[in-house]
Design goal:
This protein is α/β, with parallel strands linked by helices. Helices cover 39% and strands 19% of the residues. It comes from Natronomonas moolapensis (strain DSM 18674 / CECT 7526 / JCM 14361 / 8.8.11).
Length: 193
């Protein structure tokens, strides 16, 4: 039985995606730890119509929420589209909420055809903050992905190492015990749940 479950949410729908092998590489690094189970949530394999709050159980929404909610840590992987993250990932995140992400460890990974994909990571960090997720400091941006990823393999050693560190951080940070509430917060009426 596993004591940590690490998922990666692959926000690319392309067959020749660079995001998918990068996410799998991170999961492989996480799986090297004893007691870790991984789950690659490939949005290309799920039916998720454009989110409608009046139909939030559409398609595979329940399965998506269950898989994300079962994870102790989640890597959000996305291609860079117009300086931000993919609509597929945005749509999947719209189906999720606090139940899936609050106090969950999150890692950020993006791939780009060009350079300087950091705004994408900033946008995702803001979304995670709104969901009360805990985003690890280490994040991965892969510029010029077509020269760094071939097929299912990362061929750039520096990129491979950064992605492996992200996978390891997912496990390490997911296993940190939360701090107990302070005496001050337990006596402060305004801080009660």
């Amino acid at each position: 039985m596993s004591d940590s479950r690490i998922a990666a949410l692959v926000g690319s729908l392309r067959d020749g995606s660079y995001t998918r092998p990068a996410c799998r590489h991170a999961l492989a690094a996480a799986a090297a730890f004893d007691g870790v189970e991984t789950d690659c949530i490939d949005l290309r394999k799920l039916s998720l119509p454009v989110f409608d709050a009046d139909a939030d159980e559409a398609g595979d929404a329940s399965a998506l929420r269950a898989r994300v909610g079962a994870a102790d840590a989640v890597v959000l992987g996305t291609p860079v589209y117009h300086g931000s993250y993919s609509s597929a990932l945005k749509n999947a995140l719209d189906y999720c909420g606090f139940d899936e992400f609050e106090d969950t460890t999150v890692g950020l990974l993006c791939v780009a055809g060009g350079s300087f994909p950091t705004t994408t990571l900033d946008h995702l960090r803001s979304v995670c903050r709104a969901l009360d997720a805990w985003v690890v400091p280490h994040q991965v941006a892969i510029p010029g992905a077509r020269t760094r990823i071939e097929g299912d393999e990362i061929v750039d050693d520096d990129v491979a190492e950064r992605v492996e560190v992200l996978g390891r951080r997912m496990v390490e940070y997911a296993r940190i015990e939360p701090d107990p509430r302070t005496i001050e917060s337990t006596q402060n009426v305004g801080a009660e749940d």
